[in-house]
Structures
1.
Amino acid sequence: MNTLLTNARIATMDESFSIIESGYVFISGKTFKQIGAGAPPQDVLKQADVTTDLKGKWIVPGLYNTHGHAAMTLMRGYEDDLPLDRWLKERIWPFEGKLTKESVAAGRDLAMVEMIKSGTIGFLEMYHLNMDDFASRIEQVGMRAVLTRSVIGLCHREEQDAKLNESADFAARWDGAANNRIHTMLAPHAPYTCPIDYIERIVDRARSLSLPVHMHLAETKKEVDDYHTSFGLHPLDHLVEYNLLDDTSWLFAHAVHLEDSHVSILAKSKASISHNPMSNLKLGSGIAPVMNFIQAGIPVSIGTDGVSANNTLDLWQELRTAVLLQKGMVQKADAISTQQALRMVMREGANALQTGQKGMIKEGEEADFIVVDHTAPHLQPETQLHSHLVYTAVGSDVSDVYVQGHCLMKNRELLTLDEEKIRYEVNNQYQATVQSL
Ligand SMILES: [Zn+2]
């Protein structure tokens, strides 16, 4: 299948952030075969099976959400005003205890609808239920994903080992699946839910399988203070004491309560950070020292966390919040440039998820991109494309979404998910779950 899109404004997000003011992209199979300014040459026109005139719409790399719990989308708005520990214990865990195969699937379908409709093409899922079902579903839907069957180790050794085996078997089974759109990691939930010797066994297994490790880290001050009280040190220092940062590719979510010494430690490791500003603000957890990470050379990407703590999967909102927070925190208007900001949800996101993709529109790369409708009033005057994407774009500006050359949404209509049916199912499953509490 050869697809040609003409008359587009193309934000390549390549090394020099070049913009093609009016041009075309020609996709052959899953790859950008030719990208150019002006009208496509005759030989390209002849090869195209489908040609679409974008009438000035913008072609932009797709977005990556590097930390979340898609199943928890069913819990949107379920509790808005509790801190993390009480939020989990009093509201979220009891609700999750009543989830069924059907309700988990409904939440995840809703998450994929919301992500595609706001321009997200790839995401990380950290969860413990029905992961094989989700992997199969993603294979059909056509998104990219990093899937982790996460584990909590507050149980006896046999149960810990059974969970780890299940997690590692799942990871081995699905890594590279769905035409290399699905990748996997191992994922201890957090230091406060996994004893250090359990994390050590998980990391050992990840090393033997050559898989990265994903974990919540230092999300709240209370969690770090409690850890100090129990073990006499910060959870990251505990990982260092057990040599768990060596020879391992870590992706830490949150990383809000870290000292300068921790930033130095992370800079020397292969770790990267998924920054989740809206969840951290909403749960009253704090603001991560993102500028310190960036200045130390630690890669930073953006995640929404679960919708139950956000309450949206719209990465444009998340990105804007991240940038504004850091500018205000360090009192520097040039703390993060618009181009740097965009890279956090594009290139850095792709790198964090270790997809092998570059997060750019470039010949030879896989054809992952979104089309942004440029006609909304908040995108006028149109000149400052990068600025508008960071500071004014919203999810509903995205009109089309492509992954590996396959169209997942055209003119706001989803092609691989039944949105109306999913909306109906989500509301039914939510009511059934609440009634069973
Ligand atoms: Zn999380």
2.
Amino acid sequence: MGSGKWLVLRVEAADAEARALAAEALIGLGGTAVEERDNALVTYLAAPADPEGFLAGAEERLRAAAGREFRLSWAWEEDQDWTELWRRGLDARRVGRRLVVTPPWIQPETQRGDVVIVIDPGMAFGTGEHASTRGALRLLESAVAPGDRVLDVGTGSGILAIAAARLGAREVLAVESDPDAVTNASVNLERNGVAERVELRCDVVDAAYLRALGPRRFDVIAANILSGVLLPLLGAFRESLDEGGRAILGGILREEAERVVAAARESGFELAMVDEEEEWWSGLLRVA
Ligand SMILES: C[S@@+](CC[C@H](N)C(=O)[O-])C[C@H]1O[C@@H](n2cnc3c(N)ncnc32)[C@H](O)[C@@H]1O
């Protein structure tokens, strides 16, 4: 999916603060995902028309953002394996049977029935480059039926909420505690044409928050968060789900799965499906 020649910029900055400011400047320059490698920042850009002029401008912008203590170097890189490109935010990726997650600058190859999700990599968590996001997406594909009411807890980039809406959910409530991620999710919801069906809130979800939403409010809850956050929420998830409701739990390490499943059983769930990739475990649980 996609090919090209890329301008690779590498910035070595004095400290973490300068690196954070430089990372913002790199995104402002049109950089795709910004990777941190050995205290240096690396980003890939589509070849500019005037490379010399571009590099001079880039140096100036970085100096304005990060001060004097940085070193900019650059190189050209030829096209590579698509998974590697995708990891750097440069190509589309198929997840599960029908979902295709793509950065905005790629026109992915699709098949009939595919659901394309456009996400800007390198922003909030949830670009599809993390195995736990992919696990949750694959389970969502099985869990969401047209007309469902879905809650996405910790929406990050909004990726699961977008997938749920594009898979036919009637209404989606996406809640995220980090205001920067909410800003990013808002852009992604608009970009994917689902802003009208997804209500986005900047809030911390806890059991009291869920209870205040009212019982049996949802058909599906998706929560790709660490197990330490999920475990205390399981009882409230159960109460928030209607008859036949399903919960997708992600962000769980394989070695934590047994404990999470036992706690979910105690809260009135049964395990319906498991997805494992790398060290990450995701589970689809049904109301028993
Ligand atoms: C691992 S990311 C998942 C993002 C996205 N849903 C995905 O699947 O890729 C978890 C997100 O949950 C948010 N979060 C963590 N605890 C939360 C809570 N109690 N309420 C709301 N958001 C929370 C974090 O800020 C983070 O953006």
